[in-house]
């Protein structure tokens, strides 16, 4: 921000000298160390005593609004000045900078005070007035599209972005056109219009390859394009198909982050229609980590997911220390959601509940209007449900999943929560509830669910149900379908769960050879992931198989492994119920409760001796493994649902004031 003196055609008058002096003093006080904002505001307000011309008065109101919004919490006074600036500047010709800057800032302020409809109305009016100014027209279109996307009015957002692409094309702004196309693809991805997404991505990709001449801008657009392409494949559960695109994305981000790469200011600071950038490169760097984590999680590589999560969180903290942007909190919550699932798969449930609490804290501290908490409450309920389920608090888990289903509009998240509810009903022998929920999932046109992982999960749950009914032929049919889907896309965790259950099916019909053929690769995959629940279950099956073949040595080894896994889980269970965060399982309404460090939760521990664990481990482990078989929602879709469309970010804001420095001298009167 800079308060520049603005000249006139008659700079010799005493009034002009007063204007210039007061503006100079205001800027002096603003840039003092520390800034003296009160005196800065007083200097600007003093300008009104001279009854300045309308343009001077409007610009001064705008500057006061900017100062008040940037340095104070006095939204009422900021609103008064910005509304004054808008009223004065709206009818004026050749005054675009002040007019549209005011509209944009006033829309932001209305959004802060939860007047979304007023914010949209002023942006629509400004868009109508800006038809002859391509820069402002496109900037305002992006800003309004973002508002509609935030309110889940995706059709309106998509229409605005289509208008923006046409406006950019008419102005010959190819770079800006691609930004609009990719932003629209992101909206269509949220709506799950997969065919339209693919068409837009192909169109944008061709333009990037053939019509973007600036190599640095081309690389930025390529990263945006590849992020969406990776998210597209991950939303479909196509973990194997996405690998080439993910590798290319990782190479592109390394190019952008190289020491000899020009700064964003150099790349985007020349042409006003190129002063738009989706995300600055430092945030893109974190985002690439995030989609890599999502891929690792879906593929079943928990160690990799943990490693990249830790690196991304470290980078986020560095960026937050410099400038605490809201998008960094979004990244952090999604990363924590991933790491929570990794912890539970690996049997570290006490760490998982700690990190759920950390995600809660990020959401609660994200701002007064609590938008981040509103968007992530359903996911948090689902995570708490998974935690409660893995620690055998089935009633709490059921309540959490039901709350998740009621609060979310995300189709995949609803399906995932319902599948876990089915597991709970299966485990607690509630046959009627189980039938109802499986029928509900089936009648909701399950074939339209696009995620390969979730479709495989649906077949897995049906196979588990058939197994518990002793309908072994039916169980084999469902599980073979699951394996076909899992193997096609390298969904290793789904594969290992299906193999170990199929092994148990064969064991139940006394086909020890086929049982061994299934459990051996299941254990190998489980060790690679690593998945303690499949290892627990598989070791119980191996113990029985070796006992049947009278192989005492291997039976002893399998029992020892089984006892080891059991004891690890029991020890972790004790830590869980003693954790100060365990009371999150009681949270159902409103914001999640803060942690009470003085009152640790006390709960019954479902312990089992090493002797009887062996007889019950298979069923309990199968339940836990199923509960965590895939990300709770396509994290790519979850991210794109919150990604910035009006991402003019650093470049637009930085150069906005540079433009003012030149225009002020010409447009004061």
Key phrases:
disordered C terminus, 74% helix, Serine Threonine Protein Phosphatase 5, Tetratricopeptide repeat, 30 helices, single chain, mainly alpha, 669 residues, 0% strand
Q: Can you lay out the helices and strands and say which pair or pack?
A:
Elements: H1 14-31, H2 37-46, H3 54-71, H4 75-89, H5 96-112, H6 116-129, H7 134-150, H8 154-170, H9 174-190, H10 194-211, H11 215-235, H12 243-256, H13 264-268, H14 281-299, H15 302-322, H16 326-345, H17 349-364, H18 371-390, H19 394-407, H20 411-427, H21 431-443, H22 452-468, H23 472-488, H24 492-508, H25 512-528, H26 532-548, H27 552-578, H28 610-627, H29 635-640, H30 649-667
Helix pairs in contact: 1-2, 2-3, 3-4, 3-5, 4-5, 5-6, 6-7, 7-8, 8-9, 9-10, 9-11, 10-11, 11-12, 11-14, 12-14, 14-15, 14-16, 15-16, 16-17, 16-18, 17-18, 17-27, 18-19, 18-20, 19-20, 20-21, 20-22, 20-28, 22-23, 22-24, 23-24, 24-25, 24-26, 24-28, 25-26, 26-27, 26-28, 27-28
Specify the biggest β-sheet: none
- What is the C-alpha radius of gyration, as a whole number of Å? 29 Å
Strand content: under 5%
The CATH topology of the domain at 332-592 and 617-626 turns out to be Serine Threonine Protein Phosphatase 5, Tetratricopeptide repeat
Mean pLDDT: 86
Quickly give the CATH architecture of the domain at 332-592 and 617-626: Alpha Horseshoe
Number of strands: 0
- Helix % is over 70%
Number of helices: 30
**CATH class placement of the domain at 332-592 and 617-626:** Mainly Alpha
Q: Spans with pLDDT under 50 lasting ≥5 residues?
A: 5-12, 598-640, 646-669
GO cellular component, one term: nucleoplasm
Protein name: MAU2 chromatid cohesion factor homolog
Pfam family, one: Cohesin_load
Function: Required for association of the cohesin complex with chromatin during interphase. Plays a role in sister chromatid cohesion and normal progression through prometaphase.
């Amino acid at each position: 921000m800079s308060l520049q003196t603005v000249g006139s055609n008659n700079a010799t008058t005493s009034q002009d000298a007063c204007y210039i002096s007061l503006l100079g003093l205001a800027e002096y006080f603003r840039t003092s160390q520390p800034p003296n904002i009160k005196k800065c505001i007083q200097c600007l307000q003093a300008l009104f005593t001279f009854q300045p011309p309308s343009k001077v008065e409007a610009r001064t109101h705008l500057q006061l609004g900017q100062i008040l919004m940037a340095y104070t919490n006095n939204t009422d006074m900021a609103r008064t000045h910005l509304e004054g600036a808008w009223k004065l500047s709206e009818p004026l010709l050749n005054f675009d900078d002040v007019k549209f800057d005011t509209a944009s800032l006033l829309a932001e302020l209305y959004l802060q005070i939860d007047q979304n409809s007023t914010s949209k109305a002023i942006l629509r009016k400004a868009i109508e007035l800006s038809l002859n100014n391509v820069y402002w027209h496109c900037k305002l279109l992006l800003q309004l599209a973002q508002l509609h996307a935030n309110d889940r009015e995706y059709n309106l957002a998509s229409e605005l972005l289509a208008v923006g692409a046409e406006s950019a094309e008419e102005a010959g702004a190819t770079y800006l056109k691609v930004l609009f196309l990719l932003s629209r693809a992101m909206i269509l991805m949220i709506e799950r219009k997969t065919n339209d997404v693919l068409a837009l991505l192909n169109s944008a990709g061709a333009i990037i390859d053939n019509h973007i001449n600036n190599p640095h801008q081309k690389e930025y657009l390529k990263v945006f394009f590849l992020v969406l392409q990776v998210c597209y494949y991950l939303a479909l559960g196509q973990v194997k198909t996405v690998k080439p695109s993910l590798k290319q994305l990782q190479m592109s981000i390394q190019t952008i982050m190289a020491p000899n790469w020009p700064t964003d200011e150099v790349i985007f600071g020349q042409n006003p229609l190129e002063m738009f950038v989706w995300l600055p490169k430092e945030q893109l760097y974190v985002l690439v980590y995030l989609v890599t984590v999502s891929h690792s999680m879906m593929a079943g590589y928990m160690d990799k997911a943990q490693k990249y999560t830790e690196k991304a969180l470290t980078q986020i903290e560095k960026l937050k220390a410099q400038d605490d942007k809201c998008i960094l909190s979004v990244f952090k919550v999604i990363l924590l959601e991933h790491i929570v699932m990794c912890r539970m798969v690996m049997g570290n449930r006490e760490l998982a509940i700690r990190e759920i609490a950390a995600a809660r804290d990020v959401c609660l501290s994200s701002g007064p209007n609590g938008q981040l908490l509103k968007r992530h409450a359903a996911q948090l309920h689902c995570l708490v449900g998974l935690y409660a389920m893995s620690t055998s608090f089935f009633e709490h888990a059921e309540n959490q999943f039901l709350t998740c289903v009621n609060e979310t509009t995300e189709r995949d998240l609803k399906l995932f929560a319902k599948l876990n509810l089915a597991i709970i009903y299966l485990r607690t022998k509630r046959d009627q509830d189980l039938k109802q929920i499986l029928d509900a999932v089936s009648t909701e046109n399950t074939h339209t669910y696009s995620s390969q992982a979730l479709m495989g999960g649906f077949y897995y749950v049906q196979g588990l149900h058939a197994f518990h009914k002793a309908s072994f032929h039916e169980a084999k049919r469902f599980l073979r379908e699951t394996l076909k889907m899992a193997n096609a896309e390298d969904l290793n965790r789904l594969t290992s769960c299906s193999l170990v259950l199929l092994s148990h099916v064969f064991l139940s019909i006394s086909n020890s050879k086929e049982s061994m053929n299934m459990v051996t690769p299941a254990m190998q995959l489980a060790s690679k992931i690593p998945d303690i629940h499949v290892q627990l279950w598989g070791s119980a099956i191996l113990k029985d198989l070796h006992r049947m073949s009278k192989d005492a040595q291997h039976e002893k080894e399998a029992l020892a492994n089984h006892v080891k896994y059991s004891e690890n889980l029991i020890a972790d269970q004790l830590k869980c119920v003693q954790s100060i965060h365990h009371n999150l399982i009681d949270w159902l309404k409103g914001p999640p409760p803060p942690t009470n460090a003085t009152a640790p939760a006390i709960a019954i521990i479902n312990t089992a001796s090493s002797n009887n664990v062996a007889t019950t481990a298979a069923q309990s482990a199968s339940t836990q493994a199923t509960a965590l078989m895939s990300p709770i929602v396509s994290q790519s879709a979850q991210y794109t649902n919150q990604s910035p469309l009006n991402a003019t970010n650093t470049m637009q804001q930085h150069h906005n004031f540079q433009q003012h420095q030149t225009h002020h001298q010409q447009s004061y009167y």
